[in-house]
Design brief:
alpha+beta, Immunoglobulin-like
Protein backbone atom coordinates (compact mmCIF):
# COMPACT_ATOMS: atom_id res chain seq x y z
CA UNK A 1 0.00 0.00 0.00
CA UNK A 2 2.88 2.38 0.74
CA UNK A 3 4.27 1.81 -2.76
CA UNK A 4 0.84 2.50 -4.32
CA UNK A 5 0.36 5.68 -2.25
CA UNK A 6 3.83 6.89 -3.21
CA UNK A 7 3.11 6.30 -6.92
CA UNK A 8 -0.20 8.19 -6.73
CA UNK A 9 1.53 11.08 -4.96
CA UNK A 10 4.17 11.32 -7.70
CA UNK A 11 1.44 11.28 -10.37
CA UNK A 12 -0.43 14.13 -8.67
CA UNK A 13 2.77 16.18 -8.47
CA UNK A 14 3.33 15.75 -12.22
CA UNK A 15 -0.26 16.84 -12.96
CA UNK A 16 0.14 19.90 -10.69
CA UNK A 17 3.35 20.92 -12.48
CA UNK A 18 1.64 20.62 -15.86
CA UNK A 19 -1.24 22.75 -14.65
CA UNK A 20 1.22 25.36 -13.39
CA UNK A 21 2.91 25.36 -16.79
CA UNK A 22 -0.43 25.81 -18.54
CA UNK A 23 -1.39 28.70 -16.26
CA UNK A 24 1.88 30.48 -17.02
CA UNK A 25 1.32 29.82 -20.72
CA UNK A 26 -2.14 31.38 -20.58
CA UNK A 27 -1.00 34.38 -18.52
CA UNK A 28 -0.42 36.69 -21.48
CA UNK A 29 -3.84 35.97 -22.94
CA UNK A 30 -5.46 36.53 -19.55
CA UNK A 31 -3.74 39.89 -19.15
CA UNK A 32 -4.94 40.93 -22.58
CA UNK A 33 -8.55 39.99 -21.98
CA UNK A 34 -8.67 41.61 -18.54
CA UNK A 35 -8.30 45.19 -19.99
CA UNK A 36 -11.61 46.10 -21.63
CA UNK A 37 -13.70 49.25 -22.11
CA UNK A 38 -17.24 49.64 -23.32
CA UNK A 39 -17.97 52.72 -25.49
CA UNK A 40 -21.35 54.10 -26.50
CA UNK A 41 -21.99 54.39 -30.21
CA UNK A 42 -21.55 57.90 -31.72
CA UNK A 43 -19.37 58.97 -28.76
CA UNK A 44 -15.68 59.79 -28.95
CA UNK A 45 -12.81 57.81 -27.39
CA UNK A 46 -9.37 59.10 -26.54
CA UNK A 47 -6.53 56.71 -25.55
CA UNK A 48 -3.05 57.49 -24.23
CA UNK A 49 -0.08 55.25 -25.02
CA UNK A 50 1.25 53.91 -21.73
CA UNK A 51 -1.32 55.72 -19.55
CA UNK A 52 -4.47 53.69 -19.48
CA UNK A 53 -5.82 55.70 -16.55
CA UNK A 54 -5.93 58.80 -18.77
CA UNK A 55 -8.02 57.27 -21.54
CA UNK A 56 -11.22 59.30 -22.11
CA UNK A 57 -14.31 59.11 -24.27
CA UNK A 58 -16.79 61.90 -24.99
CA UNK A 59 -18.55 63.73 -27.81
CA UNK A 60 -15.78 65.97 -29.13
CA UNK A 61 -17.02 66.44 -32.69
CA UNK A 62 -15.66 64.99 -35.90
CA UNK A 63 -11.90 64.71 -36.38
CA UNK A 64 -9.84 64.31 -39.51
CA UNK A 65 -8.94 60.91 -40.91
CA UNK A 66 -8.64 59.40 -44.31
CA UNK A 67 -11.41 57.04 -43.21
CA UNK A 68 -14.33 59.46 -42.86
CA UNK A 69 -12.19 61.75 -40.65
CA UNK A 70 -13.15 59.80 -37.50
CA UNK A 71 -9.79 58.44 -36.26
CA UNK A 72 -6.50 60.22 -35.75
CA UNK A 73 -3.27 60.26 -33.69
CA UNK A 74 -1.70 63.28 -32.04
CA UNK A 75 0.75 64.46 -29.40
CA UNK A 76 -1.08 65.61 -26.26
CA UNK A 77 -0.29 68.51 -23.95
CA UNK A 78 1.81 66.22 -21.75
CA UNK A 79 3.77 64.98 -24.76
CA UNK A 80 1.70 61.79 -24.74
CA UNK A 81 1.14 59.82 -27.93
CA UNK A 82 -2.65 59.65 -28.15
CA UNK A 83 -5.33 58.05 -30.25
CA UNK A 84 -8.72 59.73 -30.86
CA UNK A 85 -11.78 57.95 -32.27
CA UNK A 86 -14.69 60.23 -33.18
CA UNK A 87 -18.26 59.11 -33.76
CA UNK A 88 -17.61 55.52 -32.63
CA UNK A 89 -19.12 52.86 -34.92
CA UNK A 90 -19.57 49.12 -34.47
CA UNK A 91 -16.61 48.59 -36.79
CA UNK A 92 -14.35 50.39 -34.29
CA UNK A 93 -14.62 47.50 -31.81
CA UNK A 94 -11.43 45.46 -31.44
CA UNK A 95 -8.04 45.25 -29.76
CA UNK A 96 -6.02 48.50 -29.71
CA UNK A 97 -2.35 48.27 -28.87
CA UNK A 98 0.50 50.72 -28.60
CA UNK A 99 4.03 49.38 -29.07
CA UNK A 100 7.50 50.86 -28.95
CA UNK A 101 10.11 50.62 -31.69
CA UNK A 102 11.23 47.16 -30.46
CA UNK A 103 7.74 45.74 -30.64
CA UNK A 104 7.33 45.78 -26.86
CA UNK A 105 3.72 46.13 -25.80
CA UNK A 106 3.09 49.43 -23.97
CA UNK A 107 -0.71 49.62 -23.92
CA UNK A 108 -3.35 47.03 -24.77
CA UNK A 109 -7.07 47.72 -24.62
CA UNK A 110 -10.07 45.84 -25.94
CA UNK A 111 -12.81 48.26 -27.09
CA UNK A 112 -16.43 47.12 -27.01
CA UNK A 113 -19.14 49.19 -28.72
CA UNK A 114 -22.61 49.22 -27.15
CA UNK A 115 -25.82 51.27 -27.06
CA UNK A 116 -25.59 51.73 -23.27
CA UNK A 117 -24.94 55.12 -21.80
CA UNK A 118 -21.38 55.65 -20.74
CA UNK A 119 -20.24 58.34 -18.34
CA UNK A 120 -17.96 60.80 -20.10
CA UNK A 121 -14.51 61.48 -18.72
CA UNK A 122 -12.33 64.57 -19.12
CA UNK A 123 -10.49 64.67 -22.44
CA UNK A 124 -7.37 66.50 -23.44
CA UNK A 125 -9.27 69.60 -24.68
CA UNK A 126 -6.12 71.72 -24.51
CA UNK A 127 -4.30 69.57 -27.06
CA UNK A 128 -3.52 71.10 -30.39
CA UNK A 129 -4.46 68.53 -33.00
CA UNK A 130 -3.25 69.20 -36.50
CA UNK A 131 -5.46 66.50 -37.95
CA UNK A 132 -5.57 67.71 -41.49
CA UNK A 133 -1.76 67.97 -41.68
CA UNK A 134 -0.92 64.34 -40.76
CA UNK A 135 1.30 62.92 -43.47
CA UNK A 136 1.97 59.34 -44.43
CA UNK A 137 5.01 57.67 -42.92
CA UNK A 138 7.94 57.27 -45.27
CA UNK A 139 10.63 54.64 -45.54
CA UNK A 140 13.56 55.56 -43.33
CA UNK A 141 11.44 57.41 -40.76
CA UNK A 142 12.44 56.83 -37.15
CA UNK A 143 9.46 55.26 -35.44
CA UNK A 144 9.16 55.68 -31.68
CA UNK A 145 5.69 54.23 -31.07
CA UNK A 146 2.93 52.69 -33.14
CA UNK A 147 -0.82 52.41 -32.66
CA UNK A 148 -2.39 49.22 -33.99
CA UNK A 149 -5.87 47.83 -34.25
CA UNK A 150 -6.08 44.03 -34.24
CA UNK A 151 -2.41 43.90 -35.20
CA UNK A 152 -2.72 46.36 -38.13
CA UNK A 153 -0.61 49.54 -37.73
CA UNK A 154 -2.34 52.81 -38.71
CA UNK A 155 -0.31 55.65 -37.15
CA UNK A 156 3.08 56.22 -35.59
CA UNK A 157 5.05 58.72 -33.51
CA UNK A 158 8.19 59.92 -35.31
CA UNK A 159 9.43 62.36 -32.68
CA UNK A 160 8.31 64.24 -29.60
CA UNK A 161 6.14 66.55 -31.75
CA UNK A 162 5.45 64.67 -34.98
CA UNK A 163 3.18 61.81 -35.99
CA UNK A 164 2.54 60.10 -39.32
CA UNK A 165 -0.16 57.92 -40.83
CA UNK A 166 0.34 54.24 -41.74
CA UNK A 167 -2.47 53.29 -44.11
CA UNK A 168 -3.20 49.61 -43.46
CA UNK A 169 0.51 48.76 -43.37
CA UNK A 170 1.89 46.28 -40.87
CA UNK A 171 4.74 48.04 -39.15
CA UNK A 172 8.17 46.97 -40.32
CA UNK A 173 9.63 48.35 -37.10
CA UNK A 174 8.00 45.75 -34.88
CA UNK A 175 8.50 41.98 -34.77
CA UNK A 176 5.12 40.89 -33.51
CA UNK A 177 3.03 38.89 -35.96
CA UNK A 178 -0.41 40.27 -36.72
CA UNK A 179 -3.25 38.98 -34.68
CA UNK A 180 -5.47 36.53 -36.48
CA UNK A 181 -7.98 33.75 -35.88
CA UNK A 182 -5.23 31.54 -34.40
CA UNK A 183 -4.69 34.01 -31.55
CA UNK A 184 -8.31 33.71 -30.57
CA UNK A 185 -8.20 29.93 -30.90
CA UNK A 186 -4.96 29.56 -28.92
CA UNK A 187 -6.45 29.63 -25.39
CA UNK A 188 -9.11 26.98 -26.05
CA UNK A 189 -6.58 24.88 -27.97
CA UNK A 190 -4.14 25.03 -25.07
CA UNK A 191 -6.92 24.23 -22.65
CA UNK A 192 -7.91 21.22 -24.74
CA UNK A 193 -4.27 20.14 -24.95
CA UNK A 194 -3.93 20.45 -21.19
CA UNK A 195 -7.04 18.37 -20.68
CA UNK A 196 -5.70 15.77 -23.10
CA UNK A 197 -2.39 15.63 -21.25
CA UNK A 198 -4.17 15.13 -17.95
CA UNK A 199 -6.26 12.33 -19.46
CA UNK A 200 -3.17 10.67 -20.95
CA UNK A 201 -1.38 10.92 -17.61
CA UNK A 202 -4.32 9.45 -15.78
CA UNK A 203 -4.51 6.57 -18.26
CA UNK A 204 -0.75 6.02 -18.05
CA UNK A 205 -0.94 6.15 -14.26
CA UNK A 206 -3.78 3.67 -14.26
CA UNK A 207 -1.88 1.31 -16.56
CA UNK A 208 1.25 1.66 -14.44
CA UNK A 209 -0.65 0.91 -11.25
CA UNK A 210 -2.33 -2.04 -12.92
CA UNK A 211 1.01 -3.49 -14.02
CA UNK A 212 2.54 -2.70 -10.65
CA UNK A 213 -0.26 -4.45 -8.79
CA UNK A 214 0.20 -7.44 -11.08
CA UNK A 215 3.93 -7.46 -10.27
CA UNK A 216 3.21 -7.29 -6.54
CA UNK A 217 0.68 -10.11 -6.75
CA UNK A 218 3.15 -12.24 -8.71
CA UNK A 219 5.86 -11.60 -6.13
CA UNK A 220 3.55 -12.52 -3.26
CA UNK A 221 2.53 -15.67 -5.13
CA UNK A 222 6.19 -16.57 -5.70
CA UNK A 223 6.91 -16.08 -2.00
CA UNK A 224 3.97 -18.30 -1.09
CA UNK A 225 5.23 -20.97 -3.50
CA UNK A 226 8.70 -20.89 -1.94
CA UNK A 227 7.20 -21.26 1.54
CA UNK A 228 4.99 -24.12 0.40
CA UNK A 229 7.92 -25.91 -1.21
CA UNK A 230 9.95 -25.46 1.95
CA UNK A 231 7.19 -27.04 4.05
CA UNK A 232 6.30 -29.81 1.63
CA UNK A 233 9.55 -31.28 0.29
CA UNK A 234 7.83 -34.22 -1.39
CA UNK A 235 8.66 -33.24 -4.97
CA UNK A 236 10.42 -36.08 -6.78
CA UNK A 237 13.67 -34.94 -8.39
CA UNK A 238 14.73 -37.07 -11.33
CA UNK A 239 18.33 -38.21 -11.19
CA UNK A 240 18.31 -38.70 -14.95
CA UNK A 241 17.47 -35.12 -15.88
CA UNK A 242 19.72 -32.06 -15.51
CA UNK A 243 18.69 -29.81 -12.63
CA UNK A 244 18.08 -26.82 -14.89
CA UNK A 245 15.38 -28.80 -16.71
CA UNK A 246 13.42 -29.37 -13.50
CA UNK A 247 14.06 -26.08 -11.76
CA UNK A 248 10.43 -25.58 -10.72
CA UNK A 249 10.47 -28.89 -8.85
CA UNK A 250 13.55 -28.01 -6.82
CA UNK A 251 12.58 -27.32 -3.19
CA UNK A 252 13.39 -24.10 -1.39
CA UNK A 253 14.99 -24.44 2.04
CA UNK A 254 13.89 -21.87 4.64
CA UNK A 255 16.71 -22.95 6.94
CA UNK A 256 18.88 -20.66 4.79
CA UNK A 257 16.87 -17.59 5.86
CA UNK A 258 18.84 -14.61 7.20
CA UNK A 259 17.29 -11.48 8.68
CA UNK A 260 17.77 -8.39 6.56
CA UNK A 261 18.79 -6.12 9.46
CA UNK A 262 21.98 -8.16 9.94
CA UNK A 263 23.10 -7.38 6.41
CA UNK A 264 25.10 -4.32 5.33
CA UNK A 265 25.42 -3.54 1.61
CA UNK A 266 28.53 -1.52 0.72
CA UNK A 267 28.87 -1.18 -3.04
CA UNK A 268 27.95 -2.68 -6.41
CA UNK A 269 30.57 -5.16 -7.62
CA UNK A 270 29.04 -6.29 -10.91
CA UNK A 271 25.79 -6.20 -12.86
CA UNK A 272 24.25 -8.74 -15.22
CA UNK A 273 21.10 -9.11 -17.30
CA UNK A 274 18.82 -9.94 -14.38
CA UNK A 275 20.78 -9.12 -11.24
CA UNK A 276 23.48 -7.25 -9.42
CA UNK A 277 26.21 -8.40 -7.04
CA UNK A 278 27.09 -6.24 -4.05
CA UNK A 279 29.97 -6.37 -1.59
CA UNK A 280 28.75 -6.40 1.98
CA UNK A 281 29.03 -7.66 5.53
CA UNK A 282 26.94 -10.06 7.57
CA UNK A 283 26.75 -9.43 11.31
CA UNK A 284 26.77 -12.43 13.62
CA UNK A 285 23.65 -13.35 15.57
CA UNK A 286 23.12 -12.21 19.14
CA UNK A 287 25.52 -9.85 20.86
CA UNK A 288 28.57 -10.98 18.94
CA UNK A 289 30.32 -8.24 16.97
CA UNK A 290 31.85 -10.69 14.51
CA UNK A 291 31.47 -9.73 10.85
CA UNK A 292 31.58 -12.00 7.82
CA UNK A 293 32.64 -10.54 4.48
CA UNK A 294 30.08 -11.63 1.89
CA UNK A 295 28.79 -11.01 -1.62
CA UNK A 296 25.08 -10.24 -2.00
CA UNK A 297 23.13 -11.17 -5.11
CA UNK A 298 20.01 -9.13 -5.77
CA UNK A 299 17.66 -8.34 -8.66
CA UNK A 300 18.77 -5.73 -11.17
CA UNK A 301 15.40 -3.95 -11.03
CA UNK A 302 13.67 -3.53 -7.70
CA UNK A 303 10.52 -5.59 -7.19
CA UNK A 304 10.43 -6.91 -10.77
CA UNK A 305 8.98 -10.40 -10.99
CA UNK A 306 11.14 -11.69 -13.85
CA UNK A 307 14.37 -10.60 -12.15
CA UNK A 308 13.39 -12.02 -8.77
CA UNK A 309 12.07 -15.26 -10.31
CA UNK A 310 15.42 -15.76 -12.08
CA UNK A 311 17.28 -15.18 -8.80
CA UNK A 312 14.92 -17.53 -6.92
CA UNK A 313 15.59 -20.28 -9.48
CA UNK A 314 19.33 -19.75 -9.14
CA UNK A 315 19.12 -19.96 -5.35
CA UNK A 316 17.01 -23.13 -5.51
CA UNK A 317 19.62 -24.73 -7.74
CA UNK A 318 22.44 -23.68 -5.41
CA UNK A 319 20.53 -25.20 -2.48
CA UNK A 320 20.06 -28.43 -4.45
CA UNK A 321 23.76 -28.60 -5.35
CA UNK A 322 24.91 -28.30 -1.74
CA UNK A 323 28.41 -27.68 -0.41
CA UNK A 324 31.73 -28.29 -2.16
CA UNK A 325 35.03 -26.43 -1.63
CA UNK A 326 35.41 -25.69 -5.36
CA UNK A 327 31.82 -24.53 -5.87
CA UNK A 328 30.56 -21.14 -4.75
CA UNK A 329 28.66 -21.64 -1.51
CA UNK A 330 25.27 -20.17 -0.68
CA UNK A 331 25.46 -18.79 2.86
CA UNK A 332 21.85 -17.71 3.13
CA UNK A 333 18.78 -16.07 1.61
CA UNK A 334 16.64 -13.06 2.52
CA UNK A 335 12.96 -13.56 1.64
CA UNK A 336 11.17 -11.52 4.33
CA UNK A 337 10.46 -8.56 2.02
CA UNK A 338 8.83 -10.70 -0.68
CA UNK A 339 5.56 -11.04 1.24
CA UNK A 340 5.21 -7.25 0.94
CA UNK A 341 6.18 -7.23 -2.73
CA UNK A 342 9.84 -6.51 -1.96
CA UNK A 343 13.11 -7.98 -3.18
CA UNK A 344 14.85 -11.32 -2.72
CA UNK A 345 18.56 -11.56 -1.87
CA UNK A 346 21.08 -14.38 -1.92
CA UNK A 347 24.18 -14.22 0.29
CA UNK A 348 27.25 -16.02 -1.03
CA UNK A 349 30.94 -16.21 -0.21
CA UNK A 350 33.14 -13.22 -0.89
CA UNK A 351 35.91 -13.73 -3.44
CA UNK A 352 38.77 -11.54 -4.61
CA UNK A 353 37.97 -11.49 -8.33
CA UNK A 354 37.23 -13.71 -11.30
CA UNK A 355 39.93 -15.89 -12.84
CA UNK A 356 40.26 -13.81 -16.01
CA UNK A 357 40.94 -10.62 -14.06
CA UNK A 358 43.27 -12.49 -11.68
CA UNK A 359 45.41 -13.78 -14.55
CA UNK A 360 45.46 -10.50 -16.46
CA UNK A 361 46.67 -8.52 -13.42
CA UNK A 362 49.50 -10.99 -12.69
CA UNK A 363 50.59 -11.69 -16.25
CA UNK A 364 53.71 -9.55 -15.82
CA UNK A 365 54.83 -11.68 -12.85
CA UNK A 366 54.40 -15.11 -14.43
CA UNK A 367 57.06 -17.72 -13.59
CA UNK A 368 57.47 -20.25 -16.41
CA UNK A 369 58.51 -23.44 -14.64
CA UNK A 370 58.72 -25.35 -17.92
CA UNK A 371 62.13 -23.77 -18.43
CA UNK A 372 64.92 -25.11 -16.22
CA UNK A 373 66.58 -21.70 -16.48
CA UNK A 374 63.43 -20.12 -15.12
CA UNK A 375 63.45 -22.54 -12.18
CA UNK A 376 67.03 -21.68 -11.28
CA UNK A 377 66.33 -17.98 -11.70
CA UNK A 378 63.27 -18.20 -9.51
CA UNK A 379 65.12 -20.05 -6.73
CA UNK A 380 68.04 -17.64 -6.90
CA UNK A 381 65.80 -14.59 -6.88
CA UNK A 382 63.74 -15.91 -3.99
CA UNK A 383 66.88 -16.55 -1.89
CA UNK A 384 68.34 -13.16 -2.74
CA UNK A 385 65.13 -11.28 -1.98
CA UNK A 386 64.71 -13.15 1.30
CA UNK A 387 68.24 -12.28 2.33
CA UNK A 388 68.00 -8.60 1.43
CA UNK A 389 64.43 -8.19 2.60
CA UNK A 390 63.47 -6.18 -0.46
CA UNK A 391 59.89 -5.03 0.00
CA UNK A 392 59.44 -4.58 -3.74
CA UNK A 393 60.72 -8.08 -4.42
CA UNK A 394 58.47 -9.60 -1.77
CA UNK A 395 55.50 -7.83 -3.28
CA UNK A 396 56.39 -9.21 -6.72
CA UNK A 397 56.59 -12.76 -5.35
CA UNK A 398 53.29 -12.28 -3.56
CA UNK A 399 51.59 -11.28 -6.83
CA UNK A 400 53.35 -13.81 -9.04
CA UNK A 401 51.80 -16.87 -10.64
CA UNK A 402 53.54 -19.99 -11.84
CA UNK A 403 52.96 -23.01 -14.03
CA UNK A 404 52.32 -25.09 -10.90
CA UNK A 405 49.61 -22.68 -9.75
CA UNK A 406 47.93 -22.90 -13.16
CA UNK A 407 48.04 -26.71 -12.88
CA UNK A 408 46.42 -26.39 -9.45
CA UNK A 409 43.66 -24.21 -10.91
CA UNK A 410 43.08 -26.77 -13.69
CA UNK A 411 42.76 -29.53 -11.09
CA UNK A 412 40.45 -27.54 -8.82
CA UNK A 413 38.12 -26.59 -11.68
CA UNK A 414 37.88 -30.22 -12.78
CA UNK A 415 37.25 -31.17 -9.15
CA UNK A 416 34.37 -28.71 -8.82
CA UNK A 417 32.87 -29.64 -12.20
CA UNK A 418 33.02 -33.34 -11.30
CA UNK A 419 30.91 -32.56 -8.24
CA UNK A 420 28.40 -30.52 -10.27
CA UNK A 421 28.16 -33.32 -12.84
CA UNK A 422 27.44 -35.81 -10.05
CA UNK A 423 24.53 -33.57 -9.04
CA UNK A 424 23.24 -33.50 -12.64
CA UNK A 425 24.05 -29.78 -12.81
CA UNK A 426 25.08 -28.67 -16.29
CA UNK A 427 26.86 -25.33 -16.09
CA UNK A 428 26.25 -24.19 -19.71
CA UNK A 429 28.62 -21.20 -19.42
CA UNK A 430 31.90 -22.48 -17.98
CA UNK A 431 34.61 -19.89 -18.63
CA UNK A 432 37.38 -18.06 -16.79
CA UNK A 433 35.05 -15.14 -16.05
CA UNK A 434 32.75 -17.51 -14.11
CA UNK A 435 35.51 -18.99 -11.96
CA UNK A 436 36.19 -16.96 -8.82
CA UNK A 437 39.46 -16.81 -6.88
CA UNK A 438 39.67 -16.65 -3.08
CA UNK A 439 42.43 -14.98 -1.08
CA UNK A 440 43.99 -18.39 -0.34
CA UNK A 441 44.14 -19.12 -4.10
CA UNK A 442 41.40 -21.71 -3.94
CA UNK A 443 38.78 -21.35 -6.65
CA UNK A 444 35.00 -21.36 -6.67
CA UNK A 445 32.93 -22.22 -9.74
CA UNK A 446 30.10 -19.68 -9.94
CA UNK A 447 27.03 -18.78 -12.01
CA UNK A 448 26.11 -22.43 -12.57
CA UNK A 449 22.54 -21.70 -11.51
CA UNK A 450 21.81 -18.67 -13.66
CA UNK A 451 18.72 -18.70 -15.85
CA UNK A 452 19.76 -18.38 -19.49
CA UNK A 453 17.69 -18.10 -22.62
CA UNK A 454 19.71 -20.18 -25.04
CA UNK A 455 18.74 -18.54 -28.29
CA UNK A 456 20.72 -16.91 -31.04
CA UNK A 457 20.37 -13.46 -29.47
CA UNK A 458 22.12 -14.65 -26.31
CA UNK A 459 24.88 -16.37 -28.24
CA UNK A 460 25.90 -13.29 -30.20
CA UNK A 461 25.51 -10.77 -27.38
CA UNK A 462 28.79 -9.29 -26.20
CA UNK A 463 29.57 -9.28 -22.50
CA UNK A 464 32.42 -7.92 -20.41
CA UNK A 465 35.23 -10.09 -21.77
CA UNK A 466 34.09 -12.20 -24.72
CA UNK A 467 31.01 -13.49 -26.44
CA UNK A 468 29.58 -16.57 -24.64
CA UNK A 469 29.47 -18.71 -27.79
CA UNK A 470 33.28 -18.74 -28.03
CA UNK A 471 33.54 -21.09 -25.04
CA UNK A 472 30.64 -23.30 -26.11
CA UNK A 473 30.68 -26.70 -27.79
CA UNK A 474 29.75 -27.06 -31.43
CA UNK A 475 26.53 -28.93 -30.59
CA UNK A 476 25.55 -26.24 -28.08
CA UNK A 477 25.84 -23.50 -30.69
CA UNK A 478 24.13 -25.31 -33.54
CA UNK A 479 21.64 -27.53 -31.67
CA UNK A 480 21.27 -25.88 -28.23
CA UNK A 481 22.35 -29.18 -26.65
CA UNK A 482 23.89 -28.91 -23.19
CA UNK A 483 25.33 -31.87 -21.31
CA UNK A 484 28.31 -32.71 -19.16
CA UNK A 485 30.25 -33.32 -22.39
CA UNK A 486 29.43 -29.83 -23.69
CA UNK A 487 30.73 -28.47 -20.37
CA UNK A 488 33.89 -30.56 -20.94
CA UNK A 489 34.40 -28.73 -24.27
CA UNK A 490 34.12 -25.42 -22.39
CA UNK A 491 36.62 -26.75 -19.84
CA UNK A 492 39.12 -27.23 -22.68
CA UNK A 493 38.66 -23.58 -23.68
CA UNK A 494 39.12 -22.61 -20.03
CA UNK A 495 42.44 -24.50 -19.93
CA UNK A 496 43.51 -22.45 -22.95
CA UNK A 497 42.50 -19.25 -21.10
CA UNK A 498 44.51 -20.34 -18.04
CA UNK A 499 47.76 -20.98 -19.89
CA UNK A 500 47.47 -17.87 -22.07
CA UNK A 501 47.12 -15.92 -18.83
CA UNK A 502 43.66 -14.59 -19.59
CA UNK A 503 43.61 -14.07 -23.36
CA UNK A 504 40.33 -14.08 -25.29
CA UNK A 505 39.76 -17.14 -27.48
CA UNK A 506 38.79 -16.90 -31.16
CA UNK A 507 39.25 -13.15 -31.49
CA UNK A 508 39.00 -13.46 -35.26
CA UNK A 509 35.45 -14.87 -35.17
CA UNK A 510 32.68 -12.33 -34.61
CA UNK A 511 29.68 -14.58 -35.24
CA UNK A 512 28.58 -18.01 -34.06
CA UNK A 513 28.09 -19.16 -37.66
CA UNK A 514 31.72 -18.50 -38.59
CA UNK A 515 32.96 -20.29 -35.49
CA UNK A 516 30.73 -23.31 -36.22
CA UNK A 517 32.11 -23.50 -39.76
CA UNK A 518 35.62 -23.37 -38.32
CA UNK A 519 34.81 -26.26 -35.97
CA UNK A 520 33.27 -28.36 -38.75
CA UNK A 521 36.43 -27.96 -40.81
CA UNK A 522 38.44 -29.39 -37.91
CA UNK A 523 39.77 -26.08 -36.63
CA UNK A 524 40.73 -25.75 -32.96
CA UNK A 525 42.72 -23.42 -30.71
CA UNK A 526 46.49 -23.94 -30.75
CA UNK A 527 48.56 -24.99 -27.74
CA UNK A 528 49.70 -21.96 -25.67
CA UNK A 529 53.49 -21.65 -25.15
CA UNK A 530 53.23 -21.92 -21.36
CA UNK A 531 51.04 -25.05 -21.38
CA UNK A 532 52.67 -28.38 -20.42
CA UNK A 533 52.35 -31.09 -23.04
CA UNK A 534 50.39 -33.31 -20.65
CA UNK A 535 47.77 -30.57 -20.17
CA UNK A 536 47.67 -30.00 -23.94
CA UNK A 537 46.64 -33.64 -24.40
CA UNK A 538 43.73 -33.15 -21.99
CA UNK A 539 42.68 -29.96 -23.77
CA UNK A 540 42.67 -31.67 -27.18
CA UNK A 541 40.54 -34.55 -25.88
CA UNK A 542 37.96 -32.03 -24.62
CA UNK A 543 37.43 -30.84 -28.22
CA UNK A 544 36.76 -34.17 -29.90
CA UNK A 545 33.93 -33.89 -32.43
CA UNK A 546 31.92 -36.78 -30.99
CA UNK A 547 30.79 -35.84 -27.44
CA UNK A 548 30.86 -39.48 -26.36
CA UNK A 549 34.61 -39.60 -27.06
CA UNK A 550 35.36 -36.66 -24.80
CA UNK A 551 36.54 -37.40 -21.25
CA UNK A 552 34.25 -37.02 -18.26
CA UNK A 553 35.10 -34.53 -15.55
CA UNK A 554 36.11 -37.43 -13.31
CA UNK A 555 38.74 -38.36 -15.87
CA UNK A 556 39.77 -34.70 -16.29
CA UNK A 557 40.20 -34.50 -12.52
CA UNK A 558 42.42 -37.60 -12.43
CA UNK A 559 44.55 -36.40 -15.35
CA UNK A 560 45.10 -32.89 -13.95
CA UNK A 561 45.77 -34.34 -10.50
CA UNK A 562 48.42 -36.57 -12.05
CA UNK A 563 50.01 -33.58 -13.80
CA UNK A 564 50.17 -31.61 -10.54
CA UNK A 565 51.57 -34.62 -8.65
CA UNK A 566 54.39 -34.99 -11.17
CA UNK A 567 55.27 -31.28 -11.32
CA UNK A 568 54.69 -30.15 -7.73
CA UNK A 569 53.57 -32.87 -5.29
CA UNK A 570 53.89 -30.55 -2.31
CA UNK A 571 51.42 -28.10 -3.85
CA UNK A 572 48.98 -30.97 -4.51
CA UNK A 573 49.16 -32.06 -0.87
CA UNK A 574 48.69 -28.48 0.31
CA UNK A 575 45.71 -28.06 -2.01
CA UNK A 576 44.08 -31.25 -0.69
CA UNK A 577 44.48 -30.09 2.90
CA UNK A 578 43.13 -26.63 2.10
CA UNK A 579 40.08 -28.10 0.38
CA UNK A 580 39.23 -30.18 3.44
CA UNK A 581 39.62 -27.14 5.70
CA UNK A 582 37.43 -25.11 3.35
CA UNK A 583 34.70 -27.74 3.43
CA UNK A 584 34.60 -27.69 7.23
CA UNK A 585 34.48 -23.89 7.24
CA UNK A 586 31.69 -23.84 4.67
CA UNK A 587 29.56 -26.15 6.78
CA UNK A 588 29.80 -23.67 9.63
CA UNK A 589 27.94 -21.09 7.54
CA UNK A 590 24.78 -22.71 8.92
CA UNK A 591 25.57 -21.01 12.24
CA UNK A 592 25.07 -17.62 10.58
CA UNK A 593 21.54 -18.43 9.46
CA UNK A 594 18.33 -17.54 11.27
CA UNK A 595 16.24 -20.37 9.82
CA UNK A 596 15.76 -23.76 11.54
CA UNK A 597 19.04 -25.67 11.44
CA UNK A 598 19.10 -28.90 9.44
CA UNK A 599 21.85 -31.45 9.75
CA UNK A 600 23.95 -32.22 6.72
CA UNK A 601 25.46 -35.48 5.61
CA UNK A 602 29.19 -36.05 5.33
CA UNK A 603 28.95 -37.29 1.75
CA UNK A 604 30.36 -34.03 0.40
CA UNK A 605 33.67 -34.59 2.20
CA UNK A 606 34.47 -37.63 0.11
CA UNK A 607 33.39 -35.81 -3.03
CA UNK A 608 35.83 -33.00 -2.27
CA UNK A 609 38.86 -35.28 -2.21
Amino acid sequence: MLIIASSIKRLLIVIWLLELFAVSLFAFQIREDSSEISVRKNSSLELSCGKEKERTFSSLGNGWNANEQRLTCFIGSNDDFKLLINNVHDTDAGRYTCEDRNGTLVTSLKVLVSNAKVKSQHSDTNATVERANIKACEDGDTILRVWKKDGIAFCAQKSAVEVCAMEAIISAHTHEKPSGPLNHLLPPLLTALMALLVIVLLIAGFMYMRRRNKELNNLRTLHAELLEQAKNRSEVISSAKPLHEQIDQLPFDMSYEIRLHRLTIKKVVSSGEYGRVYAGELRAKGLSKQLLEVAIKGPKRAAKYNDIKALADELRLMIAVGVHPNVLCLIGTVTENMKRGGDLYGIVEYTVCDMKTFLSKRKAHFVDELSQKSKESTSSNAHRLSAKGSQKGKKELQHSISTSLLNSFAYQIANGMEYLASKMCVHRDLAARNVLVRKNLLIRIADFGQDRQWDYQYLVRSIQYASPFKAMARESISESTFTEKSDVWSYGVLLWELFTLGDDPYKEFETAEKLTTFYESGGRLTKPPYMPESVSVIMSQCWLEDPSNRPTFSKCKKMTESVLRETNPQLLLTTHNQLMEELLAMRKYAEWRDGPHQSRTNAEAEKAK
